[in-house]
Amino acid sequence: MNPKDLIHRSAFGVCSYIGNKIGIASSRVRIYFIYLSFLTLGSPLIVYLFVAFWLDVKRLFKPMRSLLNE
Questions:
Q1: What's the Cα-to-Cα distance from 20 to each of 23, 29, 66, rounded to whole Å?
Q2: CB-side exposure of 55: number of CA atoms within 13 Å?
Q3: Could you tell me which of 17, 38, 36, 16 has the C-alpha nearest to residue 26?
Q4: 30-67 burial, b for 16+ CB within 10 Å, e for fewer?
Q5: pTM as predicted
Q6: pLDDT for res 23
Q7: Contact at 8 Å (CB) between 45 and 37?
Q8: Which residue has the higher pLDDT, 29 or 61?
Q9: DSSP assignment string, the chain
Q10: Least CB-packed of 12, 32, 53, 67 within 10 Å?
Q11: pLDDT band, residue 57 (cuts 50/70/90)
């Protein structure tokens, strides 16, 4: 397995989600997260983990929502 594929799979999809919402490439969002983490001593990681948790919760409730709509 390619290490780049492993990183993309384990990144929770946060950067691609933010990139899709804003309309920029997910690789650029990743670079911004890295730069901001170095400049602010890691505080954007808290935001990243919160968004990852929120996306995971949304994935859990999405099947329930489709069942309720039937």
A1: 5, 10, 23
A2: 14
A3: 16
A4: beebeeeeeeeeeebeeebeebeeeeeeeeeeeeeeee
A5: 0.61
A6: 92
A7: yes
A8: 29
A9: --HHHHHHHTTTTHHHHHHHHHTS-HHHHHHHHHHHHHHTTTTHHHHHHHHHHHHHHHHHHHHHHHHHH-
A10: 67
A11: confident
Q: Which of 7, 33, 9 is nearest to 22 (CA)?
A: 33
Q: Which residue is it, tokens 């999809």? A: 13
pLDDT of residue 17: 83
Q: Which amino acid is at 48?
A: Y
> Tens digit of pLDDT for each residue in 5-54?
656 555 667 888 888 889 998 889 888 888 888 898 878 888 888 888 88
Q: Where do we find the tokens 């968004």?
A: 51
